[in-house]
Amino acid sequence: MDGKVLVIRKKNRRQHPWVFSNEIKKIEGKPKKGDSVLVYEHDNFIGSGLYNPNSLITIRIYSKIEQDLDKNFFVERITKALDVRKASFPNEQDFRLVFGESDGVPGLVLDKYQKSFALQTYTAGMDMRQNLIVEAMRDVMTVACVIEKNDFRMRDIEKLERREGVIYGTPERVIISENGTKYYVNIQEGQKTGFYYDQRITRNKVRLLSKNKNILDVFCYTGGFALNSGLGEAKSVLGIDASETAIKLSEENAGLNKLENLCKFQTADAFVFLREMFREHRRFDLIVLDPPPFFKTQKEKKRGLRGYKDINLQAMKLLTEGGILVSCTCSHYFFWQDLLDVLSQAAQDIGRSFKIIDRTTQGPDHPVLLNMPESEYLRCFFLEVY
Ligand code: SAH
Asked: Is any ligand 1 atom within 6 A of the Cβ of residue 196?
């Protein structure tokens, strides 16, 4: 332990793993960026935390007891996380293995693709301990390679430089399986960590609704919803994405699942494409909208909401009678009520009635901490035209 920090927090923040700089009252010792500190409120011990004086989130609590961030810590946390995933998905090998604070490891994300792993670290403390983390992983599981995917915005907030590369082993092209759907994953070239495991539940629900329907998967990336629709015996399936690389991979994934005759893909901008489809009188029985986050901070929210309303409105116009819209958002600050408001305004504008037939969120490999609202970020509504 490298220091002791006294904090004062509002009552309703006491279980939150983040301590903001303005909650810190006194620092004893000389902790440096990335060090472990003991955190106290008055005389009460709160826990062990990761310290970063360069970040507004100055401390992230990683343990309720006094505990060093040594290899044992990581072995214990990774083992526990793996056990929880095995219990949730007894037949799966591929999932998010560690989801930061929600798994008691603030600032560490690990996605498992067979024996290959994508690693993200977004706290200084985790960043410095990458070698230790890899050692611990190898103690717990067979590890063929670990690839760092640290080119994302959250690192800027912690004043960490962006980086990507192989940190252990030799990368290879991996085939993963999710609910029986197969995907090629290219961790190095892929977006984020290579695959979006968070939509596991939504993809399965879409598969169950797809039989004999004409499906449009907008923002399809590597084809997740499209392929599930195909396996759900859809009549036709079209996936679109702005990224040519993603579309190419979607086509390969269709082949991998023997769906190349049913699932078609096209590179297109969603905002333009949806309008074109309307002009061409094309209609669909089920449309999935799974856009990237249009905003990431409260400040950008107003402008971001306009983008969401636009695509939802355009998609609603393309639905057949009885058609279904699956509308998703992965913006942290886009709460359930915001999404409901956007959807109901869009529906009113075009004069169509919908009923909510389902709603989904991130799967159990992305657990949500009750006292950390930020850990919930994925929200999807299933709306049916009636
Ligand atoms: N549905 C996917 C995940 C979508 S991620 C799955 O199941 O895996 C968001 C995707 O939106 C990315 O692939 C990105 O390339 C794409 N995208 C971003 N802006 C876009 C736009 N304007 N039009 C079409 N696609 C876009």
From this structure: yes
